[in-house]
Amino acid sequence: MTTLLQDVRYALRSFRKSPGFAFVAVATLALGIGANSAIFSLVDRVFLKSLPVRDPGRIVLLQSPGPKQGHTWSDGDDSTSFSYPMYRELRDRNTVLAGLAAEFPFSANVAARGETEEASGELVSGNYFDLLGVPSALGRTLTAADDRTPGAHPLAVLSHGYWTRRFGADASILGRTISVNGHPLTVVGVSRAGFTGIQPGRLADLFVPIAMKAEMTPFWNGLDEWKDYWVQLIGRVKPGISTTRAQAALQVIYGPILKDRLQAMTGWNESRRREFLGMKLLLVPGGRGRTVMRQGLGTPLVSVMGMVALVLLIACSNLAGLLAARGAARQREYGIRLAIGASRSQLLRQSIVECLLFAFAGGALGVLVAGWTLHALLAAFPPDDQIRQVAAQIDPRVVGFAALVSLASGLFFGISPALRAARLDPASTLQGQGRGSAPAAREVLRFRRTLVTAQIALTLVLIVAAGLFTRSLINVGRVELGIRPDKVLGFTVSPDLNGYPAERTAVFARRLTESLAAMPGVASVAAAELPTLADMTAGSNATIEGADPSMSDHRVERNGIGPDYFATMGIPVVAGRGISWSDDAGAPKVALINETMALRYLPGRNPLGVRMGFGAGKDVPTDIEIVGVVRDSRFGLVTEKAFPFVYLPYLQSKKLGRLTFYVKSAGDPGLLTAQIRGEVRRLDPGLPLTDVKLLRTQIDESLLPQRFLTTLSAAFGGLAALLAAIGIYGVLAFSVARRRQEIGVRMALGAEPATVRRLILSEVVHFLVIGAAIGLPAAWGLGRAVESVLYGVSASDAPVFAAGVALLAGVSLAAAWPSARRAARTNPMEALRSE
């Protein structure tokens, strides 16, 4: 230990003598480790961190990919949606699972202590908390006895975060009543801190027995309907039973259930029926929660993690080059120490200690850099975005990751200079001229040239990736949305969650629309059941009179809208008419379709007057008349392709509930927010507004993932270019210093300064050619890996590759120019007299 402390003190003294070298080495590592740690904190929360439950390795999620007939609810993967009767069958008949629980997310208007706000709720089966092994922090959790009779268990468990945020961690909330969606629920407990449900990125504020489904989701019960697929299933495999065995045992139960349910499936051909009977029940690992967010963020996050790893490699190669140069400069010192009795193991240990001190200093500073970087990354997303909800932070796991990366960087990239110092021959070193022998200097130069070539190759990969993402974002920005979002403000209300029946919601919607339209500066007002460009869709099969019967197997999207919707959103009606207030529940059913649907379902025909219905099969009533055709417009996502779309009057909906209003203003719509809140409060003081934002802001937020990738790739590409430039400058400066006498001889023999500059710059060209030969294929491979998240750009986009090479060449030549100019200004007489 004493010897180690001596090595540390000696290393610190040597750093004080070379503060510039120490600063550059530590700062270079800190940038690489900090960027990696920040991205790792996101990757850890999304991919690696287990749920805070008991024995998460035995938790499984149930999936059943295949055809479904009826209503299906999903949040991105409908293979995880089951009907509640199916859940009961599997729960009661299985013998290989210690338990099977069900859950379903719902929106909740929570009224308590005189205030109403929207919260995120989870309907859960009574065995949910027991199966997961999640205890309470206060009171108790739900039990099987709390989930037996529909509508008879008005209870709620608050999440710890919601209890703290909304109720100030007041223990007196236990046993009190809160109103959730217009129904009084008694708070029986608070769940343990850190548990917010089984889906990362979706934080549950309160948990309610699934028996209260009808009360929590107006107009939709679903507890008894086999063709209503909406619950997500979580199981725990019994000890001593493998997942494979459990899956096989459940399939034995599942097959007969499917065969029994097939009798109720009408309108399917034989192929579709066989596909239904062949559906498999899959058990997938569930210890890290549901994978919905991973499906959306998986490729982007893995791509970003790969890019920051390349940045770290470039930073470490710079460190290795700096250490090699430092070792060459200290060869005479090493020779003297060996000559007076120091052992080679002592020199090796001393060099490794210095490397590790650099590494851990860089790692400690890198943790700070990671905190700043993560804060900046998350601040770019709105508070309700799922990437903000994962609550990524610099926790002990991230610090441990930074420490491991620091240790690996110090050992892997510092061991070569350390071994070179330990292999020195003291006699030949002391006989050499200057501070280092010529052979050693040549060896160091070759080593650093190899590192710089690798840096150029890695930097080219990052620059090309940044170019691909940038071009993709530019293409997305040029998409014709089919709407005019400027000066349009949107907000959402959910009257149904306050107990409004559909008729009362329709009256409320009309009164609010008319009162908002009467405000000064308002050009038009309209409402829709689903918001635009919020990645929300609804749809089903459609049957149209006179259309190809096979088309009824295809899904069409739909939305309920109100009068003036097309005028407010700037969508032209190209044939027929729009929706009016007379298209109410007592009027004949009508619909408008977009141009894509007219071309696919009714090619060459006038769609006006044609009748249609939703569903597939001969018994589907075609009681809806098509009264208009509108231009195609983007609805769910900016990057989606045009697909068949049906617009229906929300006034004719029997399940009218949540509505998003759009207010088009002649001036700044943001100035209307206070007046809008006042009008809603006047009509219903207990009805909260949510998602109040400009439509342009909504569009910008929908593009945040693309901007996230583009900004990060550009930042990492720029950082890599900077590090590569530093490496090129260092190598050429070292090369010019070593070749000073050679350059002096050349100039004494008549070489022009321009010739000397070309001589030095030719080394950069050599680096570029080899680096490009390695980097371009690697960049193409990265492009192929991320092609699925690019828009309108291929992995082999020639202009992007050419621009990347040109940019890197410019950076490299700029980094080489100071050394080339210094070499061209060499005084031959001074160079020839120098040692």
Task: Please give a quick description of this structure.
By secondary structure, this protein is of the alpha+beta class. It is built from 25 helices and 23 strands.
Structural account:
There is one protein chain. With 835 residues, the chain is α+β, with helices and mostly antiparallel strands. It folds into three domains: 1-49 and 304-434, no CATH class; 56-287, no CATH class; 495-686, no CATH class. 50% of the residues lie in helices and 16% in strands. Strands 4-5-10-7-9-8 form a six-stranded mixed β-barrel. A six-stranded mixed beta barrel has the order 15-16-21-18-20-19. A four-stranded antiparallel sheet has the order 14-22-13-23. The radius of gyration is 34 Å and the shape is globular. The mean pLDDT is 83.
